[in-house]
Design goal:
Elements lengths: L2 E6 L4 E7 L5 E8 L2 H15 L4 E5 L7 H9 L3 E4 L2 H8 L9 H14 L7 E2 L6 H6 L13 E2 L10 H13 L13
Length: 186
């Protein structure tokens, strides 16, 4: 049976909900963001699938689930990214009040099950630059720990990128205007 695993990602903990083709909840579990726990979750979900494909989906594609994303890509799993805004709006259509990690993870899994417009994250192509192979990592580079996820450019900006612009614009508006440079238009 085909399974969908939705992960509400966080910095310290994730919540995973696995559903089947009918939308029945098969697993709901809170997992710490460390490698042994994530490997145990991966093994448990793959065992639950019984050799059939599992589609994983998450609402974040940076910082918090970085280890999870790297592990899923390294193990050849299909991983979909569903923007947090989409999850927020879709969660209004599901029963239950409030926002919980379990509800968000279920919404992520169910949206991955129903939607066909989501593109999977792919492993990035290795760097083929000859100088790069000879030099090795630079001072600001991190060593390659394995395959990384290719994330579309429009999703690389963090959630705070739009929040920064507001205060900057407000400060610009409050600057005093230079005196004596005004031209009267006739």
């Amino acid at each position: 049976m085909h399974l969908w695993a939705g992960i509400d990602a966080g910095k310290a903990h994730h919540h995973c909900v696995v559903i089947d083709a009918d939308g029945n909840r098969l697993l709901s579990q809170k997992i710490p963001n460390d490698e042994p726990a994530l490997l145990q979750l991966l093994a448990g979900v793959l065992e639950l699938a019984g050799g059939d494909p599992v589609v994983w989906a998450t609402d974040l594609n940076h910082v918090g689930p970085g280890l999870l994303i790297a592990m899923l890509v390294a193990h050849g799993q299909t991983l979909l990214y569903i923007p947090g805004r989409t999850v927020h709006h879709a969660s209004n259509l599901y029963r239950g009040d409030g926002k919980t990690d379990a509800k968000d993870a279920f919404v992520i899994a169910d949206q991955a099950r129903m939607r066909r417009d989501l593109q999977p994250l792919r492993a990035a192509a290795p760097d083929r630059t000859p100088g790069r192979q000879i030099r090795g990592p630079g001072p600001g580079d991190q060593p390659a720990a394995g395959p990384t996820a290719r994330i579309p450019w429009r999703h690389r900006r963090g959630p705070h990128s739009l929040r920064v612009r507001g205060p900057v614009r407000r400060r610009r508006r409050t600057r005093p205007r230079p005196q004596g440079l005004r031209q009267d238009h006739e």
